[in-house]
């Protein structure tokens, strides 16, 4: 009898224990977005009533909700009535850091501890932005980038571009690296590569010899080059050099030399469109400068400024006082005319000519708040005549084509990375609906709008506790 009972126990163990073990080993991290309208961004279309399964940072299943099996262990997010797109990118920002203290007067200088990068970078996450390119990356940003990549810090992916310029004219070291000749330019690029920067930003006051050495060295080291059109060169020369991106439409305007005719605009639009060079129009930047010059008090106290930290406010104050409010009247009117008569029509003409556009905002300049500014840039693109779909493409799909990573990201497709944005209303009907965020998935972390709101409120409270009430 005892032997019979032992056999029963053994059979029970063989049958039950493996099932028990398997149930305990099931990965609880699977997320299922059910009944969602997917805008995949591979073409202009909406896929209704989809279920999207996400696991370990990738989309592992996508299809009609009636056809996709959802594992019992999955966390289900009922997304009925919501719209899913890839997350957004801001391919031209600046980020606070200790180097900016060099520009500030004593009363505006801040300690390193005063900048909470966790709060600062959350502003991008809160606005659906998970990829940014820092166009004046500093040494301290390298460790912050690495913390994000390791998962130790929540924030967007940081692409670090080290700014290199001619000496004694613009942003001083260590904000940028100054070089006076080809030899110094070659060394600066090599040093940036060794230190761990991702790309190089070419700035306005490079000599032609320095610029040529910068481009050739960067190509040897497989570092992309973005930036301005140096005044010592021409647009034609920069395009021929295969600089990867021109980071303002204003850079083309400089070489139009006041001729904003349709023919001149078409010439520059077609010249760049026929090349491999991308453009970040940064229309919201120019619009903010125009608004700042017209009504500085209003622009310096926008509703979203409540989320700005002490260093950002100091930089805004310095730049507004020292750069913008000291402009002579004729230069002010020239900025407004250039924005209206060249930059806006050029951006549309460039798009019409097949040019490759990226969204960038120049965040940290006065009037441009981290994260929130991306929605202004999208609205600017639509305002000049670009469709909402094509504007979205400039912020979702195009950045990964630009980076050579479109096989892995930039669309909502099987196998792609799962940086996904859930919107409460259709952005193809109105681009301003990108502001109506229901939640964001950053790889495998789902952050609903309630958590976003709570975190933003805490950021405001922390600044109020520091005496920075807005």
Folded structure, characterized:
With 470 residues, the protein is α/β, with parallel strands linked by helices. It folds into 2 domains: 27-86 and 413-461, Urease, subunit C, domain 1 (Roll), CATH 2.30.40; 88-402, Metal-dependent hydrolases (TIM Barrel), CATH 3.20.20.140. It has 16 helices and 16 strands. The protein has helices spanning 2-25, 117-126, 139-150, 182-195, 208-220, 235-240, 250-256, 262-273, 283-294, 296-299, 310-324, 329-352, 373-383, 388-395, 398-402, 449-465, and strands at residues 31-38, 47-55, 58-64, 75-78, 83-86, 88-93, 129-134, 157-165, 177-178, 199-202, 224-227, 245-246, 278-279, 420-423, 437-442, 445-448. β10, α5 and β11 (224-227) form a beta-alpha-beta unit.
Could you name the ranges where pLDDT drops below 50 across 5 or more consecutive residues?
1-27
Structural category is alpha/beta
Q: Give me the Rg, rounded.
A: 25 Å
Helix percentage: 40-55%
Q: What distance separates the N and C termini?
A: 82 Å
Count of the separate structural domains: 2
Strand content: 15-25%
User: Per CATH, which architecture of the largest domain?
Assistant: Alpha-Beta Barrel
The CATH homologous superfamily of the largest domain: Metal-dependent hydrolases
Arithmetic mean pLDDT: 92
Which geometry do the CA atoms define?
globular
